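re: that chain from earlier
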Amino acid sequence: MHYVIGGQGDPVVLLHGWPQTWYEWRHVMPALAKYYTVVAPDLRGFGESSKPVTGYDGNTTAEDLYQLVSQLGFDKKIYLVGHDVGAQTAYSYAAIHPDNVSKLVIMDAVFPGFFPPNFEGACWWCSFHQTRDVPELLTAGNEREYLSWHYLGLAYNPEAITEADIDTYVSSYSAPGGMRAGFEYYRAFPMNAEQNKALSETKLQIPVLALGGDIYPAFGGDAPGNFALDSTQGLAENVKGVIVPLSGHYIAEERPDFLIKELVKFFNE
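^ sequence. v structure.
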């Protein structure tokens, strides 16, 4: 598993979403590294990490993360932050290894098996990506056009993800197996739903912060509440929610300063 690491202090692990890589955290890592040891891996199938055919469910990707954290040899519990599909890995890790996590942050994500009622039908690409082989065929050679729709359509501030940033992401996803691996995270939704329901029989007891975007152009405007909070409440006992003003889905890139302040405040509480 490829990762980027920097700083000194208590460990903070940042898990990116789709269609991104560790690079999602480029604006956040330098500030956090003043206070913490910050680790941002490329999850299975993304960026410079390996792209196996299977193993994109939450429990398996959580085991990937467990191996990495063990390899790094932290002697303290980690602060764990997950965005989008990275939030599934983060939750699964916290539920399976509760003694290894101090606090959990969920960023603009929902969990299969615990989708809020107002989320159903909002994510057309969730169904599209689960279709076997068709997304790969239709996006081959058009990776930039397809991914750009997601960056621009789900960001309140589209200038937060520049053309150069898109080049970086597209380079990763255009690599052999890159798009397929991303789609496999969505194809794992049914398995994740089963895993989440089983894991949620024992709710998380650690503090959880659920951050949600404020405005989604692709959804026609204001977000209908905090999807992340609504979904996470079924999995954890101690959850608080924060709506990130003037941000869409890509909080770490659209509002990095706001995010840094919220993370440091939450970690220090």
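The longest strand covers residues 101-107.
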